[in-house]
Amino acid sequence: MNTPAPPSAPAPPRHPGLRDFYENPAVPVASGTPRSLRQARMLARALATPGTSAAPGATTATVLDIGCGDGTAAATAAPLLPGHRIIGVDWSQDALRRARTRLPYAIRGELTGTGLPFRDASVDAVLFSEVVEHLVDPDSALDEIRRVLRPGGHLMLSTPNLAAWYNRGLLLAGVQPVFSEVSLRAIHGRPGREVVGHLRLYTARALREFVAAAGFEVVRLEGAPFHGVPRPLRALDRLACARPSLASILLLHARKT
């Protein structure tokens, strides 16, 4: 006589992983306009410097916006970079669908695995905006960016500042700093309402050392405001930009050595 098997326990609910998280259309993929404009101005100045605009003999620079998200940052930068070709790159198909409504070129690419679909030393500049803080392996990411940049090519990297002026006060009060994440499912212990998936956070000093160790010469470090700062504190946040170590956002310009 066959005894029927006991009913199996229901499978535990599947929670989305990191890749699922970034493919979710509800996850924010755009950064604030003030940061995008400041970064674009830094790149425009760099490309206007004699002898650094593009590869020798070329008049048009190829600029990659790696981790372009919905294309807002690249579209904001485009009017400040006339005559140069801006190509959005992302691995999220949902982000690319949105980016293609704003950019003439938006292609799929990864910083790990198969790598970027570009030849060695074929790119003049890279915009790397609010991406490095999301990466499991930022070292390999900078290696891949360095591979595709020509000698002397520009890296424009932006990332939240762990040591922003308000985070210093929050830590003294025992509060989780802004920009830091302890979960992909909910906010715990810090101000804010959006889960954005940050895995890495940098101070100004750490960012300089990290980029230099990857084979880049750090040219300049500036600060930018954060669009999520409450309105009554925004004037103070703009003032903090004068001292990058206190600013909300770090804007770093480096060149491939």
From TrEMBL:
Keywords: Methyltransferase, Transferase. GO terms for molecular function: methyltransferase activity. CDD domains: AdoMet_MTases (cd02440). One of its GO terms (biological process) is antibiotic biosynthetic process. It holds the Pfam family Methyltransf_23. This is SAM-dependent methyltransferase. Gene3D superfamilies: Vaccinia Virus protein VP39.
